[in-house]
Sequence to fold (393 residues):
Amino acid sequence: MDPCNRRDGLAALPARRQALAALLCAGAAASLPLSTLAQSGRPVLPQWRATAERVAQAGIPIEDLAPNAPDSHTVQRGDTLWGISALFLESPWRWPELWGMNLEQIRNPHLIYPGQVLVLEKRDGRATLRMAGAADGLPPGTVKLSPRVRVQTLDNGAIAAIPLHLIGPFLNEAVVFDDNELDTAPRIVAAQEGHVLLARGETAYVRGELGGARDFRVFRQLTPLVDPETRAVLGYEGRYVGTAELVRPEQAGPLLVPATFRITSTRLEAGVGDRLAPVPQQELVAYVPHPPARPVDGRIISVYGEGVSAGQNQVVALNRGKREGIERGNVLALWRAGRRVVDTTTPGERTALQLPDERHGLLFVFRVFERVSYALILSVQEPVTRGDRFTQP
Fold:
């Protein structure tokens, strides 16, 4: 049973788990756009809000804090929700609990700004987090920044969930199509004279229905994403080439004059036959780090960019998506498969053994499609490869 999808779901849980469940449900709901909430039928129900309010007043047990949790923290440009949560909590994906702790001061975990000061209070075995005021004698207002700090703020100035420079390029590049829909998409039919491949600033000629758009992404052949478990094709990943903008539309006449495009950026050199898809509206990336609302068990489909193995700060495709309840901001655990060994410690005997799987890393989901998701490897002990297992943290 998923308590987040039933009005009686929280009541069915043991009392000691109701507060945490309410925070997880409210935190997960808060991480979704209003339009998505409306479509999913998952509003922030009054009982969730009421439970979160009670937890905000009571705080959390001190033993749930990180061992070296600071007494206060001044939010700076370069901070992320993930990093701040790790300062105060042993498990950074428990951000909804941190949000519940300071519900009165921080209404929306998306909107935490550089210069704000968070103060940790401990009383009667419990801890709460609040925003500092003038009475605390802590630095008010903005923070003087080092020019070497990499900016991780959104357009509205709020800090992001995870480092934007790690996932920014993939928000447009990592695209999964349900079928070979690019077969009928606009296509490059010719390059400017004397060119076979096109670099930034060069001219391409395009045929096809543009649908009124002016800015396009350029893709090469689609690669099927095959489920390592079922062998089913879950979607088609477009090989990202770059971007192009419309200069002149197609013109009819005795001979058709194709549309003129300028290549505006390239990951690969563009060429005849490459397909175009409109650039989507930029997604909001201030989603809340949180565990999945239900158990999940899946496999890595591939390493993005044709790699064989991946390490920290690289991107992988997962064989779970919206259909299985995966959301942006979900934190997942990576597991290393246990080896098969032979016990030779007993004279004259050789016993085959299967060692258990061992957890060795964390993933952060930032892009979700119907049956596939993309995740950033936050931490890992050994290289990640196709078929590796992931679960809820």
In short: The chain is about 15% helix and 30% strand. The longest helix spans residues 15-30. The longest strand covers residues 233-248. The domain at 297-391 is CATH 2.40.10 (Thrombin, subunit H).
